[in-house]
Amino acid sequence: MKINIFALLSYLFFSTTIDAQQHKKSVVKFQKELNKEFKNPKKSPLKKEDLKTFQGLAFFPIDEKYRVTAKFERAENAIPFQMATTTDRLPTYEVYGTATFVIDQQEFTLNIYQSHQLRATKKYKTHLFLPFTDLTNGTETYGGGRFLDLEIPEGTSIPIDFNKAYHPYCAYNYSYSCPIPPEENDLKIKIEAGVKL
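The chain above was modelled as a monomer; its predicted structure follows.
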């Protein structure tokens, strides 16, 4: 029995370690791709003068705590609405569902949105949008909040990795029009993961 328990514990430890390593590689890949985009003059949101001195974005250390598997609940009879932005542009979204998860023994629920414009395209028809604010805004991160890109889940759970949270383009260039995270997506906790100032 002792040998079986030891083998099981060893297997679980090995599996967890491998999973953490794969997760780290995934986040590092995300960071590299984001920096590549910002360094590309054709894609970068940076102003020309900022692009000349750009060395790379700053990121919080990768932290497994901020990778969660949330309980997903599909919204019923969602009503389309116009999401406020930093300009007078009012894109149409709807609440696709809610995600409930736990961080530091606290339970949180966020709305996940779907863009009517993007879902009409082949490339983004399964794309979901998670804008949020948290207690790092205005000090460690952009005051207007951060974004996460998700995909429509197949079941009743959805993976959310705050290590891949990024700033809207408005954080770097006010000429852009960026969605403003709705009040219901304000987290009363510091999300020390993803892109920082």
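The mean pLDDT is 92.
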